């Protein structure tokens, strides 16, 4: 996960810039997804995605309290953007069922655990990545020190979220996320990130 002001690579494949991200969903598909109460998070987590996703979440919440299905396939991105989506998922009344697919990494994993464990699912070939936030502060020594302290605070906050949502101890989370921590679908179930691995939409009912 990256601080909003950090544009450096974290050791995972680079994100597409918002202007380069292909718009694969036509307006007709978007309308069908909205009617079926389905959201897709795909690609890097940034402010452009935040605006789109929370707008749809709030609109769906206003329309009905029926469950929302959210598919997550993301390499992560800005921590603050992930925080916003995480908090709005917990803010609205409808329950949000998470379905991980492909990979659910970094800020994508932060969004994924916004739902209660019993509402977190993944497809069989999903991989998960947890790690500590990264920063790329420049400027004066004083500014760099301030940024370093903020990253430490951010890391502690995010680790406590994963502790709460997985049932692992804080010490275990801190140790595991010190470096890139990959989990298969089966390992994610054992770790407490996922409740069940599913292969069919029928298994959501």
UniProtKB/TrEMBL annotation:
Recorded catalytic activity of this chain's protein: Hydrolysis of proteins to small peptides in the presence of ATP and magnesium. alpha-casein is the usual test substrate. In the absence of ATP, only oligopeptides shorter than five residues are hydrolyzed (such as succinyl-Leu-Tyr-|-NHMec, and Leu-Tyr-Leu-|-Tyr-Trp, in which cleavage of the -Tyr-|-Leu- and -Tyr-|-Trp bonds also occurs)
Matching Pfam families: CLP_protease
Localization terms from the record: Cytoplasm
InterPro entries assigned: ClpP, ClpP/crotonase-like_dom_sf, ClpP/TepA, ClpP_His_AS
Top-level enzyme category: hydrolase
EC number(s) reported in the record: 3.4.21.92
Sample GO molecular function, one term: ATPase binding
Composition bias, Acidic residues: 1-13
Alphabetized PANTHER family for the sequence: ATP-DEPENDENT CLP PROTEASE PROTEOLYTIC SUBUNIT
Protein name: ATP-dependent Clp protease proteolytic subunit
Classification lineage: Bacteria, Pseudomonadati, Gemmatimonadota, Longimicrobiia, Longimicrobiales
